[in-house]
Amino acid sequence: MTLEQQLVGLVEYDASADPFPVSGWDALVWVVGNALQTTHFLQTAFGMELVAYSGPETGNRDHHAYVLRSGAARFVVKGAYDPWSPLADHHRTHGDGILDIALTVPDVDRCITHARAQGATVLEEPHDVSDEHGTVRIATLATYGDTRHTLVDRSRYSGPYLPGYVARGSAVVPPAKRLFQAVDHVVGNVELGAMDEWVGFYNRVMGFTNMAEFIGDDIATDYSALMSKVVANGNHRVKFPLNEPAPGKKKSQIDEYLEFYRGPGAQHVALATNDILTTVDAMRAAGVEFLATPDSYYEDPQLRARIGQVRAPVEELQRRGILVDRDEDGYLLQIFTKPTGDRPTVFFELIERHGSLGFGKGNFKALFEAIEREQERRGNF
Ligand SMILES: [Fe+2]
């Protein structure tokens, strides 16, 4: 197994038979209220490296945009400069969040032809953008809510991001060891009853296949519940769990998201690390807040028996609140941050896979109970 296979659970597949071949993540494009300061946070707390910039100095009178990298992961952070920018509207409605889950594809036109035939909404037709570094072919599809998928073929381009961007570094000293190496999955929250519709969209339009299914009791606590299904591209580099609220005694965490994001959107981004203990320590020292896990989680004899032998002593995981899950293929370690913006919406997960291709199904209940304690403190439960 290669390092990347282990890190994000890659599988072999035949792209020639795929009507919509996707190679991987191109970028997660964020819209925030203050791009400069979010960029600072992502450098100092997430150890990302600033690599490119677009703004008034480069002729962009609409917004500031900062491009950050950590290994294979690329984030683009945008903040409106012009009050009439569409990005300002997006931020007023949704708060800080993910506008675009951009994907790298070898053939933009082929994907769009297939997507259109399957009834997808094409927001931007395939077109070339060029500068002195070459040409990028690009097109954009609509997905749930105001979220989009820009399809990018950058095989003929050598610039720092896209035409219109200039290379840019910063004085922030990166951590000695990279805190994460790749994006593992991005979760979408959709309205009650819409999950299967979006699973169908990814199946039909983008050729994604269903990976796993968590329904009903699996992820219901006494008070709050959700349903979740997971779709993935051919090589499994791109994985999209999709959640919808399920009826519970109190408001589901998905309902809280939908209320505060004002509609469907990206709920969390899971970042793949090969050393979750060091990453959690570094992020916590920089002020990142993680969801607390009750001591009972680690002391429960049933859970101890279920997780078996993992690479770190359970006491080390407990000290940091790291969760463990095991399935027939192996195990994974994971932890979730609190929401990182002003609204109780988008947050991050850190995930260290050891063979498991799952998403922490066994931890859902333990996790959701922890989330609900936070929801209760905010008075939204
Ligand atoms: Fe996740």
Description of the structure:
With 381 residues, the protein is of the alpha+beta class. It folds into two domains: 16-167, 2,3-Dihydroxybiphenyl 1,2-Dioxygenase, domain 1; 182-377, 2,3-Dihydroxybiphenyl 1,2-Dioxygenase, domain 1. The chain has eleven helices and 17 strands. The chain has helices at residues 3-8, 35-44, 86-94, 108-117, 195-204, 253-261, 276-285, 295-299, 301-307, 314-320, 364-377, and strands spanning 24-31, 49-54, 63-70, 73-80, 97-104, 122-131, 134-142, 148-153, 166-167, 182-189, 209-214, 225-232, 239-246, 265-272, 323-327, 330-336, 347-354. The chain has a nine-stranded mixed β-sheet with strand order 6-7-8-5-1-4-3-2-9. Strands 11-12-13-10-14-17-16-15 form an eight-stranded mixed β-sheet. A hairpin with a 2-residue loop joins strand 15 (323-327) and strand 16. The longest helix has 14 residues, at 364-377. It is globular, with a radius of gyration of 20 Å. The model has no long low-confidence stretch (mean pLDDT 92). The protein binds fe (ii) ion. Residues 185, 187, 268, 270, 349, 359 line the site of fe (ii) ion (FE2). Fe (ii) ion binds at residues 185, 187, 268, 270, 349, 359.
Helix content: 25-40%
* CATH level-3 fold name of the largest domain: 2,3-Dihydroxybiphenyl 1,2-Dioxygenase, domain 1
What's the N-to-C terminus distance?
44 Å
Q: In the residues, how many domains can be counted?
A: 2
Which ligands are bound?
A: fe (ii) ion
* Strand segment tally: 17
Large-scale geometry: globular
The first-level CATH class name of the largest domain: Alpha Beta
- The CATH level-2 architecture of the largest domain is identified as Roll
Low-confidence blocks of residues? none
Order of helices and strands: HEHEEEHEHEEEEEHEEEHEHHHHEEEH
The fraction of residues assigned to DSSP E strands is 25-35%
At the fourth level of CATH, the homologous superfamily of the largest domain is 2,3-Dihydroxybiphenyl 1,2-Dioxygenase, domain 1
Based on CA atoms alone, the radius of gyration comes out at 20 Å
Strand order of the largest sheet: 6-7-8-5-1-4-3-2-9
Structural class: alpha+beta
> How many H/I helices?
11
Largest sheet: 9 strands, mixed
Mean pLDDT: 92
Pfam family, one: Glyoxalase
Family: Belongs to the 4HPPD family.
InterPro entries: 4OHPhenylPyrv_dOase, 4OHPhenylPyrv_dOase_C, 4OHPhenylPyrv_dOase_N, Glyas_Bleomycin-R_OHBP_Dase, Glyas_Fos-R_dOase_dom, VOC_core
GO molecular function: 4-hydroxyphenylpyruvate dioxygenase activity; metal ion binding
